[in-house]
């Protein structure tokens, strides 16, 4: 049996998924050894997310799974080709394939018609929208793109401003003697602003929000004092 040289591919081997009926290239993902073993064991495609830093099954949230019919290894033993039965669509944007933007002639670049999107976690969706604005949007008509153009200090300044506005909203809600529900609504609004700009800051460093959630999960069952001491000991 041909073995993959995991050291050669730095632990992550590119995996190209193609539609078993049409032969269309659906997506390019990466697998570590565990993801490949899970794919073989279950018969469904599993990948390693470099942004979320974890293994995920294709369609685990959207239901748009990939049933594997075959896996082939290329002649250099460093790329996989998966022939799959794609349920639903392959791309998180709602397109059938991730390869839908033509860039050979930028003046004629086009995308296929939008179809209903799969159901992804709101933070994951927001992160990908922010990344898209970071890479592709015009700073003259995109607020997020304008922040990235201005750079780190502008992004961090907005995080600080939104944190201050949340503090004031909480203080107002605590001290109000009139419309408490309105005050609470303001807290929610300001919290959303802070979350949004925190995601922009994370995207500046290409850190997926799920890594933050994983850190919070790690702290479950650990006292705040013990967690702080563990950081000081490093």
From TrEMBL:
<comment type="pathway">
    <text>Amino-acid biosynthesis; L-histidine biosynthesis; L-histidine from 5-phospho-alpha-D-ribose 1-diphosphate: step 3/9.</text>
</comment>
<dbReference type="InterPro" id="IPR002496">
    <property type="entry name" value="PRib_AMP_CycHydrolase_dom"/>
</dbReference>
<dbReference type="GO" id="GO:0000105">
    <property type="term" value="P:L-histidine biosynthetic process"/>
</dbReference>
<dbReference type="InterPro" id="IPR021130">
    <property type="entry name" value="PRib-ATP_PPHydrolase-like"/>
</dbReference>
<comment type="similarity">
    <text>In the N-terminal section; belongs to the PRA-CH family.</text>
</comment>
<keyword id="KW-0511">Multifunctional enzyme</keyword>
<dbReference type="Pfam" id="PF01502">
    <property type="entry name" value="PRA-CH"/>
</dbReference>
<keyword id="KW-0028">Amino-acid biosynthesis</keyword>
<keyword id="KW-0378">Hydrolase</keyword>
<comment type="pathway">
    <text>Amino-acid biosynthesis; L-histidine biosynthesis; L-histidine from 5-phospho-alpha-D-ribose 1-diphosphate: step 2/9.</text>
</comment>
<dbReference type="GO" id="GO:0004636">
    <property type="term" value="F:phosphoribosyl-ATP diphosphatase activity"/>
</dbReference>
<keyword id="KW-0368">Histidine biosynthesis</keyword>
<dbReference type="InterPro" id="IPR026660">
    <property type="entry name" value="PRA-CH"/>
</dbReference>
<dbReference type="InterPro" id="IPR038019">
    <property type="entry name" value="PRib_AMP_CycHydrolase_sf"/>
</dbReference>
<dbReference type="InterPro" id="IPR008179">
    <property type="entry name" value="HisE"/>
</dbReference>
<dbReference type="GO" id="GO:0004635">
    <property type="term" value="F:phosphoribosyl-AMP cyclohydrolase activity"/>
</dbReference>
<dbReference type="GO" id="GO:0005737">
    <property type="term" value="C:cytoplasm"/>
</dbReference>
<protein>
    <recommendedName>
        <fullName>Histidine biosynthesis bifunctional protein HisIE</fullName>
        <ecNumber>3.5.4.19</ecNumber>
        <ecNumber>3.6.1.31</ecNumber>
    </recommendedName>
</protein>
<keyword id="KW-0963">Cytoplasm</keyword>
<feature type="region of interest" description="Phosphoribosyl-ATP pyrophosphohydrolase">
    <location>
        <begin position="123"/>
        <end position="234"/>
    </location>
</feature>
<keyword id="KW-0547">Nucleotide-binding</keyword>
<dbReference type="GO" id="GO:0005524">
    <property type="term" value="F:ATP binding"/>
</dbReference>
<keyword id="KW-0067">ATP-binding</keyword>
<dbReference type="Pfam" id="PF01503">
    <property type="entry name" value="PRA-PH"/>
</dbReference>
<dbReference type="InterPro" id="IPR023019">
    <property type="entry name" value="His_synth_HisIE"/>
</dbReference>
<feature type="region of interest" description="Phosphoribosyl-AMP cyclohydrolase">
    <location>
        <begin position="1"/>
        <end position="122"/>
    </location>
</feature>
<comment type="similarity">
    <text>In the C-terminal section; belongs to the PRA-PH family.</text>
</comment>
<feature type="domain" description="Phosphoribosyl-AMP cyclohydrolase">
    <location>
        <begin position="27"/>
        <end position="100"/>
    </location>
</feature>
